[in-house]
UniProtKB/TrEMBL annotation:
Catalytic activity: 2 a phenolic donor + H2O2 = 2 a phenolic radical donor + 2 H2O
UniProt source species: Deinandra increscens subsp. villosa
Name of protein: Peroxidase
GO biological process, one term: response to oxidative stress
InterPro entries named among the record's database cross-references: Haem_peroxidase, Haem_peroxidase_sf, Peroxidase_pln, Peroxidases_heam-ligand_BS, Secretory_peroxidase
Main subcellular location: secreted
GO terms for MF: heme binding; lactoperoxidase activity; metal ion binding
Disulfide pairings: C34-C110, C67-C72, C116-C318, C193-C225
Length: 322
């Protein structure tokens, strides 16, 4: 017993030092410093989404776009003539005002304590819950970044092959399973006609539509996005359940009713098809499996290139560095 203690003590000390040096997040980081933090974010998100459901997909997508560029450090929220916000793929993001509202309430309740990066991570979870998801515990303790550059914005794109999607996720420490699960975020929200128009009339120069699209669904998409029509018009990514966080998106992929080419390809490729298949099914068990796995992969994504400890800062307002 004595011997064990001697071996364990220095070992634990080294682990503790390493943890402090690297920094890490943990569930309940604000329990003692701002016990109302999570309640405040939740209530702001709840009222915003109740008023306008499109905030839920907006905030979820914003969190993904934050994490994939210089880590989950709220760099997406910074204003500036060449900040991330100004990059093309971010031009339609929605929900900045919701994050700002939560921050302003938190600065009144506990000034200088809660980072914008954590507010965004919590708000993404609360948005999902607000449209029917079951949620997950969000580790907190992120610090806000000091840099935001449009030139660093590179996301997977709607025309990306499965190989490209996998490579881009692997670069962020996420595997193929995480890719298929996180893209399940497309169970809510919409895409502009411009992002998938190439599939509808002249797919890859063939003069015919993408053969992967179901015939009836093609008619629907063509009605929504006529040739020469308004490219900014938006179409539900998960037909028939755009405001419900559920697993029907995966069934739509199987049925040729995926809207984005990148999504639809997840069914054509055997590597991803078998993962998609695992989420299809109308039972409560399938639904809760998706919810559980989504939460798990979101937590993984929320740890990309973390800034913790003494790195970065806690911004006073989310759109400017201090
Ligand atoms: C291969 C990866 C991905 C690609 C290629 C992709 C692409 C896109 C595209 C093109 C849109 C439509 C944008 C527009 O026209 O406004 C979109 C919307 C959206 N994406 Fe993704 N995405 C990917 C992964 C993700 C992930 C990981 C999440 C979250 C976990 C996510 C959440 C969303 C949401 C919620 C919307 C709807 C936004 C709204 O309605 O305001 N996406 N995505």
């Amino acid at each position: 017993m004595e011997v064990h203690t001697h071996i364990k003590t220095p070992f634990l000390f080294v682990v503790l030092l390493a943890t402090l040096a690297l920094g890490s997040t943990r569930v309940g980081f604000y329990n003692t410093t701002c016990s109302q933090a999570e309640t405040i974010v939740r209530s702001v998100v709840e009222s915003a989404v109740r008023l306008n459901q499109t905030f839920a997909p907006g905030i979820l997508q914003m969190f993904f776009h934050d994490c994939f560029v210089s880590g989950c450090d709220a760099s997406i929220l910074l204003d500036g003539s060449s900040s991330e916000k100004t990059a093309g793929p971010n031009s339609l993001l929605k929900g900045f005002e919701v994050i700002d509202a939560a921050k302003s309430m938190l600065e009144t309740a506990c000034p200088g304590v809660v980072s914008c990066a954590d507010i965004l991570a919590l708000a993404a979870r609360d948005s999902v819950v607000q449209v029917g998801g079951t949620g997950w515990a969000v580790p907190t303790g992120r610090r806000d970044g000091l840099v935001s550059l449009a030139s660093e914005v590179t996301f997977p794109g709607p025309k990306d092959s499965v190989d490209d999607q996998i490579v881009k996720f692997v670069k962020k420490g996420l595997n193929t399973k995480d890719l298929v699960i996180l893209v399940g975020g497309h169970t809510i929200g919409r895409a502009s006609c411009t992002t998938f128009h190439h599939r509808l009339y002249n797919y890859s120069g063939t003069n015919v539509p993408d053969p992967a699209i179901d015939h009836t669904f093609l008619r629907h998409l063509r009605t929504m996005c006529p040739e020469g029509g308004d490219g900014a018009r938006r179409v539900a990514l998960d037909t028939d359940s755009v405001n419900n966080f559920d697993n029907s998106f995966y069934g739509n992929l199987r049925d040729g009713r995926g809207v984005l080419e990148s999504d639809s390809l997840l069914w054509s490729d055997p590597r991803t098809q078998k993962i998609v298949q695992g989420f299809i099914g109308g039972s409560r068990r399938h639904q809760s499996k998706f919810n559980k796995m989504f939460g798990r992969s979101m937590v993984k994504m929320s740890k990309i290139e973390l800034k913790t400890g003494k790195q970065g800062e806690i911004r006073r307002v989310c759109n400017k560095i201090n």
